[in-house]
């Protein structure tokens, strides 16, 4: 940004300087000045094509820098796998490939800058030579004094340095324009549609999916196919199925992270799109399978966002309910202990319990648990399940799970496969269908081979 600002400043000052010098030349001899103006279209053409090339290369350079950052971030983040599987040579080659591409683009920028500067200087020098040659012709000598000639000569010579500087700043200017285009492309992205005025205060009737079809990109297979089911208010609804069956998609649709392709989702009898986003999401607590921990203290992570003013007693109560207080109390500064970027100072199970405590503290009427206990050991999972069972009372809870042991308590279980609802009912009802999809999943998970 600073380089671009400097380039704009130089361009403005030097442009005014060139115009002033041309004005001096016109004042002294407009006929001699025409010799210079003959070169203007050629210089303009050079600047146009050079600017176009600069911009094209600068766009590639922006993408190249993004590729380098992405590769480095990926390699550093996966350092364990790189070392264990001997990927150092492969990753080194991958980094050198993107770095070499960046180097080639920078060489192109430098070469274009050198050629364009030399060409503009040559054209300007040719124009100066043309003025000297024309001024010494017999037709001009009679009407020109030595003072006028020197004024024109000095003005022409004064044009050369600004022309050189303006050519040099083209690379900075075009690189800044290319970067600005990327920034403004993001800024110009439309915001989430949120023109509704209806507020959601609690949940009384429940959530209903009516023939909902959802795909993440045009031309891809649907993640959900005409799915219809109901999450009753104050009850626990579990969604199970194989990987890729559309379970997480169901969880993403309720807070309107995505919009369905067809069908409708009703909350208390009204379409989901009728509610204000802030009002809708303010009624939802979420614990995802990819736990998000922010760089800060334990308390700041539990009392996050709108809960930042929560009392310490309430934060401790939420931590106790999530079975997180035991390890928090042992930390050097307790609740106020920093846990690092992405929570690298605590274990995976501890991060997940902090995220559960965050959801408990929000105390929202809708609770979404997307594999919320997947990173817990058996003892912690048992304690968490007891806490969640108490938390789920009088709340509309949607549980996404692979492990059927975590959803046996659910009032209703939805079985998905390839985006379709295969069957639904309680745990006992579904087990009573020996040939059903849920019974098959149950046998696969619990019928372990017997040893001696």
UniProtKB/TrEMBL annotation:
Domain called ABC transmembrane type-1: residue spans: 1-175
Primary localization: membrane
Transmembrane segments: 7-26, 32-50, 111-133
Keyword GTP-binding belongs to the record: no
Protein localization: Endomembrane system
Keywords carried by this UniProt record: ATP-binding, Membrane, Nucleotide-binding, Translocase, Transmembrane, Transmembrane helix, Transport
CC terms in the record's Gene Ontology section: endomembrane system; membrane
CDD domains, per database record: ABC_6TM_MsbA_like
Keyword flag ATP-binding: yes
InterPro entries: AAA+_ATPase (IPR003593), ABC1_TM_dom (IPR011527), ABC1_TM_sf (IPR036640), ABC_transporter-like_ATP-bd (IPR003439), ABC_transporter-like_CS (IPR017871), P-loop_NTPase (IPR027417), Type_1_exporter (IPR039421)
Residues of the ABC transporter domain: 207-443
Entry's Gene Ontology molecular function annotations: ABC-type oligopeptide transporter activity; ATP binding; ATP hydrolysis activity
Protein topology in the membrane: Multi-pass membrane protein
PANTHER family according to UniProt: ATP-BINDING CASSETTE SUB-FAMILY B MEMBER 10, MITOCHONDRIAL, ATP-DEPENDENT PERMEASE MDL1, MITOCHONDRIAL
Protein name in the entry: Lipid transporter ATP-binding/permease protein
Organism, as annotated: mine drainage metagenome
Taxon lineage: unclassified sequences, metagenomes, ecological metagenomes
